[in-house]
Amino acid sequence: MTINELQDELIDDFEFITEWEEKYKYIIDLGKELPVIDEQYKTEQYLIKGCQSRVWLHATYENGKVIFTADSDAIITKGLVSMMVKILSNQTPEDIMNAELYFIDKVGLKDHLSVTRSNGLLSMIKQMKLYAIAFHKA
């Protein structure tokens, strides 16, 4: 699936949830589905700078696609990084670099996340795009 198809699927999932308390529960559930990051990557080197919570992100490059794994010590943040991994993992570096992540506005995250969580989400996106740039140049 393309990045936009994955975003549209996520937007559809959120459309049926009207209350923000329920949306937060869904975000937490998404975090529980996050593929487990290998413990060797849960070090300072893989921490995303700019997140209030601790978020580890690792990427590999396989068969022309970037594969992300991640984890967080905070349940909402883990759900947020899970969404990012779901949308950007298994995509080409070019597609990741050029992705317009419109799902953030469409599901209401921009309006309902605290400033620190919003900043953390932007830091996640920045780091994922930096990995894509690095793999693109390799």
Describe what this molecule looks like in 3D.
By secondary structure, the protein is mainly alpha-helical. It has seven helices and two strands; from the N terminus they run ααββααααα. The protein has helices at residues 3-15, 20-32, 75-88, 93-98, 103-106, 109-112, 115-137; strands at residues 55-62, 65-72. Strands 1-2 form a two-stranded antiparallel sheet. β1 and β2 form a beta hairpin. α1 (3-15) crosses α3 (75-88). The longest helix is centred in the C-terminal third of the chain and has 23 residues, at 115-137. The model has no long low-confidence stretch (mean pLDDT 93).
What's the helical proportion of residues?
Answer: 55-70%
How would a textbook summarize the main sheet?
Answer: 2 strands, antiparallel
Secondary structure: number of strands = 2
The end-to-end distance, rounded to whole angstroms, is: 24 Å
Structural class: mainly alpha
Q: What kind of oligomer do you see? A: single chain
Strand content: 5-15%
Shape: globular
Count the domains.
1
* Number of H/I helices: 7
Major β-sheet strand ordering: 1-2
CATH class: Alpha Beta
CATH-derived topology: Sufe protein. Chain: A
Using the 3D structure, state the CATH architecture: Alpha-Beta Complex
Q: pLDDT average, as an integer? A: 93
Regions with little confidence, pLDDT below 50 for 5+ residues: none
Helix and strand run: HHEEHHHHH
- Give Rg in angstroms: 14 Å
